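Friendly challenge for the regulars: who can give me the structure tokens for this chain first? No prize, just bragging rights.
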Amino acid sequence: MGVPPRELPAAWQPLLGLPALAELLGHPLAGAALTALRGLPPRVAVHSLRTFLLADARARSLGTAYDRVGLLAAAAFHDAGLVGRGPLGPGGFAGRGAELLDRFLTEHEVGAGRRATLTRAVREHMRPFPARDADPEARLLHFGAWLDVTGRGERRVPGLRRVLAEQAPTPWFPVSFSARVVACGLRRVLPGSSTTGR
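First reply, four minutes later:
Bragging rights claimed.
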């Protein structure tokens, strides 16, 4: 069980009040994911919430059914691998985030099939484009994360990125995010890429 929503960071409150998140606040897994999200740097945490909201808006615009609570958990962990100084291993920070999500979901007794779907979404979110056989959760996480950082896909949910950034601003986030990615070793981020240096 997570902390009460009113005890979550003040910077999150405008986003938590939006229907897509407000509807999930009573769910135990959503509460636990939000509690875990407090362990990330503030800008990364806000980016994770915006990622979910952008992904959810895209799903609603398309009429796509998906695991909403699961995607919130995936969004909460998708950049968790950027934090800390331990070795990342194959898959870079996205692979590390998938490992952390898998551990979290296992602790909350989420079944193997659902865990595999959600951890794949995190593992592959840094690909230039989703894989052809990607599940809705992977496509949506990819869409939300890339839109929030780069603006790619803006026309598919017009104006929402700007609105969310105004409600929960993170000035210079794309620059600071890029610096974190570079610090983690970009060549080790992309799934299937070589981990050997050149």
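Confidence is low (pLDDT under 50) at residues 186-198. The CA atoms of residues 148 and 161 lie 6 Å apart. Your move, everyone else.
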